[in-house]
Write a structure and sequence with these properties.
The protein is 20% helix and 20% strand. The protein has 75 residues and is α+β, with helices and mostly antiparallel strands.
């Protein structure tokens, strides 16, 4: 655990943030008393689960049939 005072935290914020991202615990103190702890946010990337869309998608029975000729759609 790293403890720094507010002035040092302001001066070295980028470095402290990187240390937190790398797994270090950083505490910011005021008058030598811990006040705030910097923590990394949980990953924003959602966890993908196999089969999570089961039952949400329906495929038409004629999906693999040839498409009709284009002239059938022209007026």
């Amino acid at each position: 655990m790293i403890q720094v005072n507010i002035h040092e935290a302001k001066t070295n914020l980028s470095r402290l943030i990187q240390q937190v991202i790398d797994g270090e615990e950083v505490v910011i103190a005021k008058d030598h008393r811990p006040v705030v702890k910097l923590v990394a946010l949980a990953s924003q990337k959602p966890v993908r689960r196999l089969g999570s869309a089961a039952g949400l998608i329906q495929i038409s029975g004629d999906f693999s049939e040839p498409l009709p000729e284009l002239e059938d759609y022209l007026l």
